Amino acid sequence: MTTPHSLLLVGCGKMGSALLERWKHSQAMQRFDIIDPSHIQKNEPNIFWHKNSETLAANYAPDVIILAVKPQQLESILPAYKLRFAGSTPLYISIAAGKTLGFYSHHLGEHVHVVRAMPNTPALVGQGITVLCAAPTLPASAKKIAGDLLKAVGSVEWLEDELLMDAVTSISGCGPAYVFLFIEGLIKAGMAAGLDEHLAKSLALQTVSGSLELAKHSPKSMEQLRIDVASPGGATEAALGVFMQENRLHQVIKEAVLAAKKRSKELS
Ligand SMILES: NC(=O)c1ccc[n+]([C@@H]2O[C@H](COP(=O)([O-])OP(=O)(O)OC[C@H]3O[C@@H](n4cnc5c(N)ncnc54)[C@H](OP(=O)(O)O)[C@@H]3O)[C@@H](O)[C@H]2O)c1
């Protein structure tokens, strides 16, 4: 298989639906089947919804199966998929946090093609970043399929050392939540400082997005860009004194990231 034509999405919650939203516009993919017990039937061409795997046609053999359920659900659902697709050779791509390639070999079989992926929700607007990891024995053609699919929702990085996947999860998988929390805080603080909600939100969003563009395009370090905003004795310096007192913002970020990494490892 060089170009996949059919895709089975198992679990269409927040992350599964973000991926589907982009993939459904792909020209190459001719058919999507989606399994999700709480699905809402939608009328879209080439998209077929199921409450469980029992309503899939007997001869159905998807090229790619995306596992997008909660990590805790995988152990109970994988045996049914192993049995159902034993006669075909789908490429499984799992986006579940924590679950290792060894876990999938154990539950799906040693020779099944599996790619572990850690995307993030900006995939919904084509601005995600996904880190992929696979056994060294995975054929190059399968790697290409996984890479191409995830490139449709943003950037892609491959990781050779699977042990780093928990660290990846704690930065890019969970990271959008940290950024949204910061923006939320900025909006609330703007309102506490006297702005109405609309203006506070508009200023917070454009400040984050403009700063991001500057950070991406400037040759300067983050530290230098920060110093550039703060004149000695000025307003920014007053705020930074609060954020940076005893290095507390960086300390909190580090503690939060390590908590996410630990939880990701516990989910394996
Ligand atoms: N959210 C993120 O930002 C993010 C980022 C990277 C990776 N991930 C990974 O993506 C996976 C899904 O996360 P999520 O946030 O999208 O969770 P979610 O919103 O809860 O989505 C999971 C979906 O799977 C459905 N489901 C439950 N049992 C099922 C079954 N037996 N067969 C098929 N579908 C079933 C759930 O339905 P019910 O609600 O009815 O149970 C739900 O709609 C997780 O493994 C997570 O680690 C998430």
Task: Tell the overall outline.
Answer: elongated
Mean pLDDT: 94
Percent helix? 40-55%
- State the low-pLDDT regions, or none: none
How many strand elements? 8
Structural class: alpha/beta
CATH superfamily of the largest domain: NAD(P)-binding Rossmann-like Domain
- H/E series: EHEEEHEHEEHEHHHHHH
In percent terms, what proportion of residues is strand? 5-15%
> How does CATH name the architecture of the largest domain?
3-Layer(aba) Sandwich
Q: Specify Rg, calculated over alpha carbons.
A: 22 Å
How many discrete domains?
A: 2
The level 1 CATH classification of the largest domain is Alpha Beta
Number of helices: 10
Could you say what the CATH topology of the largest domain is called? Rossmann fold
The biggest beta sheet, please?
8 strands, mixed
Notes on the protein architecture:
- Helices cover 48% and strands 15% of the residues.
- By secondary structure, the protein is α/β, with parallel strands linked by helices.
- An 8-stranded mixed β-sheet has the order 3-2-1-4-5-6-7-8, with helices on both faces.
- Helix 5 (165-173) packs across helix 10.
- The longest helix is centred in the C-terminal third of the chain and has 21 residues, at 197-217.
- The model has no long low-confidence stretch (mean pLDDT 94).
- NADP nicotinamide-adenine-dinucleotide phosphate is lined by residues 10-16, 35-38, 68-71, 73, 77, 95-97, 118-121, 173.
